[in-house]
Predict the structure.
Amino acid sequence: MAMFCARIRLIVTAMAILIFAVAALPAAAQQPNAVDPNADAVKEQQLLQQSNRIQGLGTIPDTKSYVIEQPMGRVWRQFHEVWLRWIGSIAVLGMLALLGLFYLIRGTVRIESGRSGVKIVRFTAFERFMHWMTATCFIILGLTGLNITFGKHVLLPLIGPSAFSSWSLAAKYTHNFISFPFTLGVILIFVVWLAGNIPNRVDIEWFKRGGGIIGRDHPPAYRFNAGQKGVYWIVVLGGTVVAVSGYMLIFPFYVTNIAGMQLAQVVHGVIAVLFVAVMLAHIYIGTIGMEGAFEPMGEGTVDLNWAKEHHSLWLEEEGARIGPGEMERQPAANYHGFRITDPNVPRS
Amino acid sequence: MARMKFLCDADRCIDCNACVTACKNENEVPWGINRRRVVTINDGKPGERSVSMACMHCTDAPCAAVCPVSCFYTTADGVVLHSKDLCIGCGYCFYACPFGAPQYPRVGNFGSRGKMDKCTYCTGGPEPDNTPLQYEKYGANRLSEGKLPLCAEMCSTKSLLAGDGDIIAEIYKDRVAKRGYGSGAWGWQTAYRETIDT
């Protein structure tokens, strides 16, 4: 009996081993020689090649921290520290040098026929307010903005880190808050002066003859000549771009992510320094570049002869509206937005 | 002098966030600021990897280069620090940083972000070492006591390594040689312009 049991045990064991061996065969065939748990793993360089930034999921509420690597910060740095500095320096200093040279060659453009003494209204008080509000904001924004890019190389060595930081902090807040009246000014300029700034055929002729500043004659122009229209559209379009890109930076992460903010800063910086350069030229013509050009924005009136030379078609329009010869006959008369003052005739 | 670096061995990180907690506690970082965070890439998919990331203390640091008031400086140990007295909170370092390290205490509209805060490698700031003033502004100064940053010191899987760059690179190389695989030193190419050959 015992022998029978032993034999049964042997058979069962042998069969069990056989079954296990057969069952184990395919499993052993499937098992690779070396285990590589990294076969599926994400690779840093591969991810960077795919999208130039690596983003995942985190457990803290700050979702923008889920971007763990964005090497294009290096590109932005290259822009801010090298390219913008070159673009800004060339644009601003180049424009100043150009204007200085131009002044030496051309000097102040005089009113050729001299002053008539008769003055006509060119800009209303509201238009002048709108202009000077925008202009004041622009100068403050320009200086505080240039400080962010150039201050640490120009001003920091002069006044030291502590004073420079205090100034820059104040400048940053000023820059941010002054942007609001500036934006309002740009909107007002757009609306109020739009009608006079639609390009037309006269502008082509004006450009061909180099206007009154580069050319030696006086091509006809309506209320705004082609050069002024250029300034208008630079202010409106440039101002819009600078304002929009600036607000994207004032309200971080509201409308865009880090890549969008880098782009916004690039656009803001480049357009702003070009804007400053153009406005330097605008200031030049409005002050020392041309006789009688400051008065319309200063007092609101221009000399009749200045208007004849620089805005002949505008003067005709104005004359037609109130009747020819009216402006000489009716001194100190108040017309609809058109006042003529002759200092030689005593007021009654 | 040593050149201090961080190295996160992504094959070991288990996304436990102890480094994040340790950092917040050790430095008493205010609400909303995380000097270190763990990000999981391809979460829930095969081959997901978690990486603990903070300021990498870059060679030729971009934040320092773009700062409009030059408030950054690099210590003799290669740690990138900044002065909160000089910082104007403009946010430029955040645009430039490849690792999203700079943090701001306020939500930050109208440029009122407050003074920037970031990982100091547990090295304090420009104030005299181990003074209450330094602690209040910048947090712990463990390096001056001969200790490494707490995040790395208490990492349970020793995934996060801190110390001299050459030494931690050697440790990582040995690991990769022993276990037969590695997924690279995350961020090293971007931060230090070098990788660890394994």
